[in-house]
Amino acid sequence: MRRLSPLTTFVVFAFGWIVVLTAVWSQVSPWTSYPVGVLSHIALEQGAPMWVRTVRLEPGNMEVDFAVSVTDANGRRGEITVDASPARYAYGLPIFLALLLAARGKKRIGRAVAGYLLLLPAQAFSLTFYVLMQLVLAVQLNIRALRLEQWQMELIVYAYQLGALVVPTLAPIVLWLWLDKKFVTDVVMRGWKGDGTAPSSTHP
Fold first, then answer.
1. What's CA 170's distance to the chain center, in Å?
2. Secondary structure of 104-127 in HEC code, one letter for each residue
3. Is residue 201 scored above 90 in pLDDT?
4. Which residues contact 50 (CB under 8 A, 6 or more apart)?
């Protein structure tokens, strides 16, 4: 039986680890994602003080009360409250850890901790603009209600799309490529070039 190439072995192990770690992450994400909520809380209060009244944070949930009023179908006015899960866009963590474990290099614990910490700002970016987008939708894209210029409204929309569609999956992959540069060069790039032999040196 033909032996699998190092690249194929890596891909198989990566998919396997993603399945296992995602299952584990789904159980612990309220706590592992709590720092994401903390960073988003700070960003909202510092970046949009004219809108944010209070932010309540607990493991698994963040509730933002906005000092922006809307009128419902019955003519009643009320302020906007948005509920969000800090783990909503934090699923890149198991992806990053799966790639790290599949590479089977040394110093994995240190790289895992570094990766976890470095992913937090990207996850907070996605969460923050998700919350702001819910505010924008609640006022039905009314720039006057938020006292915004049109370009500022569009910036929120584009940042939300980036944070929802690109950042959660791209950030962990880019981070792993950076932290595991030698493995990427020795195995991934060599495999893409058609050389299925094992690397000559040990991955650090």
1. 9
2. CCCCHHHHHHHHHHHHHHHHHHHH
3. no
4. 67, 147
Alpha helices for 33-185 (secondary structure H)? 34-47, 92-103, 108-138, 143-146, 150-165, 167-179, 181-183
Q: What is the DSSP letter of 90?
A: -
Please choose, from the candidates 115, 103, 94, the residue with its C-alpha nearest in 3D space to the C-alpha of residue 174.
115
Q: Within its chain, how far is the Cα of 125 from the centroid? A: 8
- Amino acid identity of 103? A
Neighbours of 132 (CB within 10 A): 26
Report the candidate in 97, 114, 90 with the shortest Cα–Cα distance to residue 31: 90
Whether pLDDT at 24 is above 90: yes
d(CA 131, CA 38): 14
Query: What pLDDT, in 10s, does the model give residues 46-70?
Result: 999 999 999 999 999 999 999 988 8
Tokens standing for residue 150: 């049109």
Q: In what order do the strands lie in the sheet with 77-84?
A: 52-58, 61-71, 77-84
Q: Which residues are CB-contacts of 36 (< 8 A; sequence separation ≥ 6)? A: 86, 87, 90, 120, 123, 124, 127
CA 120 to chain centre: 7
